[in-house]
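Model it.
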Amino acid sequence: MAGYEPRGQRNMDMQQSHMNDEQLHSSPTQQYTAAPPASDDATPGAFDMLPPAPSAHPSWQALHDYAQSHASRHGYALSINTTAKNRSRIKLACVCYGQPKNTHKLTPETRVRKNRVSYKTGCNMWIEGRKQDDGTWVLRVGEPGHNHEGRESAGWAVQRKRTWGVTGGRMGMGGVTAKEELAKLRLSDTKDIGDEAEDEGEEELEGSSEQKSAHSLERGGLVWKIVEQEMLRKGEPNQGRDRGVGRTVAVLHARLPGIHIFKRDVYNIRALIKRARKAADQQVEDDEDAEEGAAEEVEKEVEKEVEKDVEKDVEKDVEKDVEKDVEEEVKLLMRDNAELRRLLAEKTDEVKKATIKMAGLQSQVDYMTSVMMAGARSRMPG
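Modeled.
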């Protein structure tokens, strides 16, 4: 990841770029030529750290690939530092560009990953790609000098490549990056790419015949099995935060002499193993779910049939019970009705007798009243 560039430094860079552009346009004799062919002019183990030559390229990707390839041969690596809003200017800086920052305010006592060191050394080297009106890109060197020593491409995470391959492996595995593999797949129909693939295949076959053994990443391969065995081992007390990946790399180097493998390769293999296990577990779960689903459907059908039978039986029983209850209630009502009729007849007789008795008493009262009135009249003086 590119380092952060202070605003003052960025302004100085923009001013320097503007001055160089003015010199470029004002000088009619200065011309940019096509990118020179790649040449390994640096002796092994010694790097001159030279910047790429100013050149013109048909696209940004071509410019970036050329600059990165040149950097890898001369002992350093580049990364995108800043980009203009319209993407007409892109700045590539050395990965050691800028000063390291301790954003989390860590101290040697509080730092957990003690082996993690920043690439940044305050290096000022940077180049720039500028898009022209005709669509081509021009490479310009802004600051050529470095303040650090060079190292092989395997020592830079940006340029690190897998040094052992897989035929038909996953993207990003097998010695090439995902970008390169996609580019080859897009151009696989052309004759030149086909010839190139055949040549590369012949070179791989020749290299594999010279080696003692071919180490592949295919599922079930030796590397895969070793990594899987190491994953099953219990972690040691002081194995660090890499979860035993460093130990796995050491085991692979010990058991497979001559293999070139890095921690990121082991991380990728472990991810593939976990993905394969997850897919297998998912398949088993899907089969179990399908069986459980079929069993549940059968159980539901059986339950529905049983419920229907039970409902029919219950309806029949209810109908029978209702009929019995109705008959019993009718009988009870008839008995109650007869009893009420009998009581009503008795009460009617009592009422008739009471009426007759009251009529006799009324006649007696009338007779006594008339007698008393007649006696009273006779006593009155004439």
